[in-house]
Amino acid sequence: MAIAQDQTTTDVIDELRAWLxxxxxxxxxxxxxxxxxxxxxxxxxxxxxxxxxxxxxRNDVVRVQxxxxxxxxxxxPAGLGLLLAAPTIATHGSQEQIDRYVKDIVTGQQAxxxxxxxxxxxxxLAGLTTRAERDGDEFxxxxxxxxxxxxxxxDLGMLLARTNPEAPKHQGITWFxxxxxxxxxxxxxxxxxTGRAMFNxxxxxxxxxSVDAIVGDLNNGWAAANTTLAHxxxxxxxxxxxxxxxAALPGTVAGFLEKRVGDFAPKGGQEQRxxxxxxxxxxxxxxxxxxxxxxxxxxxxPSLRQGLMRLYTLGELGRYNGLRLKAIKxxxxxxxxxxxLSKLAMSEMMRLxxxxxxxxxxxxxxxHAYDTESRAKLDEATxxxxxxxxxxxxxxxxxxxxxxxxxxxxxxxxxxxxxGLPKEPNDDRTRPFSELxxxx
Length: 440
Hints:
single chain, alpha+beta, Butyryl-CoA Dehydrogenase, subunit A, domain 2, four-stranded antiparallel beta sheet, three-stranded mixed beta sheet, 11% strand
């Protein structure tokens, strides 16, 4: 079985290399390259073939992405479209919707954002109050979303809105694909502790979305939302692929599509990353901290060494858990709750990275720059170009335990859905949402 699987993986990579040899051209535009990559199935190789993919396993998807980078070609148009919207639409959408939306995702023509959380509905997402009211062949949207990653670059959004307030709260929600470039949609950036603005709040004032933009069934958006969240947690967890951006951003807003693709190709084996939340999004890096500790002599501290080893071990556990999950799924099984466990592990790794990093740099950890000019000045003043990475990861570490479902939510899911522990007593599954007490 293992030999056959290894052979299959080898065949996939050989096929990819041959395709890259025939199709990679540094002088075409980013849009032209992504069209070739997307329509060939290599941009989203984990999606089924009817959704512009190749149906590969998750680990083979990672190998495909690594091989594209190793070859020296620009990778797929990453972001929330490829990470969340495409697999949700492939699972719950019609073939017409797959052709309408997923094609533009895998070819980089459209960028997406996620419009789930609200000021009063974060951990309790099903308590959302953004309204969608039917008006002929359209719905009229009013409400507010918050913590919207990449909203400033998005062409379309994954919108959860309440379409039936008289149904129990999980049953009156619908998943829409909404146009972000229309009157009635306002995106406002939220400045973070790091100085960046990866997140936004979005206001809807009589915005409109067509009936045929419902993904899944009317009032059954919770099923589609769970698919979206499962992919989000798998991507954010330790050992996951992550939802970072590539060297060029997809969509009509960022302005990369008509640029020469060769200008964005990876150089010298560099990882293709840009935009978003900067260095903090690159995850907990044990190697970076170990190298820093060796450089300034703090590596001799026994308790620090123990912490660094723990960080490295957590990373390896995440990687091996990914391999376990792959092997079990290939034999037709599953590991319930693995995405939630991985998300919890990533939160712990980020907190540990914060604490260890600040211990290693000492008092210099109180210095942080909030814009490009200041970062250059700080690097020059301290002589340590890695200080900004440490302080940014330290400031950003407060976010992962919250976004994508708080640590408390992950533990509740594991307890109730995996271990079978009883839920807290409530009647929110049977009582109409309009009669439930609302969050402040």
